[in-house]
Amino acid sequence: QVQLVESGGGLVQAGGSLRLSCAASGLHVQYNYGVGWFRQAPGKEREFVAGISWSAGSTSGDSVKGRFTISRDNAKNTVYLQMNSLKPEDTAVYYCAAGCHTVGGTLCEYWGQGTQVTVSS
Predict the structure, then answer these.
(1) Per residue in 44-66, pLDDT tens?
(2) Which residues of 78-98 are buried (b: 16+ CB within 10 A; e: fewer)?
(3) Contact 31/88 with Cβ under 8 angstroms?
(4) How far is CA 26 from CA 29, 52, 106, in A?
(5) Which of 13, 27, 77, 100 has the most other CB atoms within 10 Å of its CB?
(6) Integer Cα distance of 110 and 35 in angstroms
């Protein structure tokens, strides 16, 4: 079965950096038709953060452009989210997802359990 396991979340001060990892099993991140990161803050809907295609083309949400970068390591079957210049409003549970049907959308086949990112001011 497919399993996505996030790691790397935690508490960081504003302006700091974190790198989230999503280790996949049961699928190859290199060949999946849509892999990405999403986040959900309390009282808000789930938000698209960044996505990457099988060809390594990537896109990101407007709120994180210039600060967050998605990448993958095919040998490790792992997707990363490098988060720089973090702001308190970035505080959320971050989810890895695969099998996403549309660019920027939240309709995905598989989801990880989520990892908490908290940015203090």
Answers:
(1) 999 999 998 877 788 999 999 99
(2) bbbbebeebeeebbbbbbbbb
(3) no
(4) 10, 18, 21
(5) 100
(6) 9
